[in-house]
Amino acid sequence: MRRVRYHENGGPEVLRVEETEVPRPGPGELLLRTEAVGVTLPVVRKVREGGLALPAGLGGEVAGPVVAVGPDVTGFAVGDLVTGLCFGDGYADRSVVLSAMASPVPDGASATDAVALVRCGLVARGAYEAARPAEGESVMVTAAASGAGHLAVQLAKARGAGRVVAAVGSAAKADFVRSLGADEVVTYEELAGPAPLPFAPVDIVLDAVGGELLSPAVAALAPGGRLVAYSSGGGTVEAYDLLVGAKSVVGFQMALIARHRPELMERWRRELWEDFAAGRVRPRIHAELPLEEAATAHGIIESRVNLGKVVLRPM
């Protein structure tokens, strides 16, 4: 089979396509003929910054039909179209996923739909629910054109937000986020600048950026507002800035929900597909690229120009 690996840390140029034997699924595992792979910023960062023993494969969200079933697997059969997380060689034309972390793709949806919707949609939905939203409250979504952010904009509108502000890195993304349902658009420069905010403060901020944008995002909250931090970008907030406005910051991590509240994750997943079928939430695809162009896909993510999801198509 063909797979993408890297033998040294660095930018997209370190990715290599290699030939290797097709793996066999072990106990509790499924082998997929990979039709779609979702490219994510955390994986791109891992290639550049390190953290794994080298050479290393690239994991992530994958989707495709089941071609082999390992021992002790129930609920799946050869031919089923499924999506799940691959912790080994995900950038490959065959991938192994744990059946416990796989889910069926419903009729009428493709493998590309699945890798663009499920994982990013679960993160977006979970971050929104972590804010404990009330009907009609206003929401600002940072990284609003990203894989998760563009779904968060749509989910907030579908779940009853009264006003949605999309925060983006460039004004060139304004038309895209407005097409998702955003009522107002602000650039990071405007959000962090010395001038007054170009929009009324919001009740909720869903922040996928962190870093230097974290404090301006807190400043954009109305009194009693809540910021949900779900990025790996770090950042600090002054306690006084929370105190004077009775504001709060909460962290959200999907892995904890998967580990401790699997029934909640399953409900969110089911409702995501219901929203998809009803047209309330539609994943947007910035680019679909062959496996051999994985470096191009990583370059798109690193440059932050993507409008929606970047997907690799190994087959």
Automatic annotation (TrEMBL):
GO terms for cellular component: cytosol. The keyword NADP applies. Residues 10-312 form the Enoyl reductase (ER) domain. InterPro entries: ADH-like_C (IPR013149), ADH-like_N (IPR013154), ER (IPR020843), GroES-like_sf (IPR011032), NAD(P)-bd_dom_sf (IPR036291). Gene3D superfamilies: Medium-chain alcohol dehydrogenases, catalytic domain (3.90.180.10), NAD(P)-binding Rossmann-like Domain (3.40.50.720). SUPFAM superfamilies: GroES-like, NAD(P)-binding Rossmann-fold domains. Keywords: NADP, Oxidoreductase. One of its GO terms (molecular function) is NADPH binding. Pfam families: ADH_N, ADH_zinc_N. This is NADPH:quinone reductase.
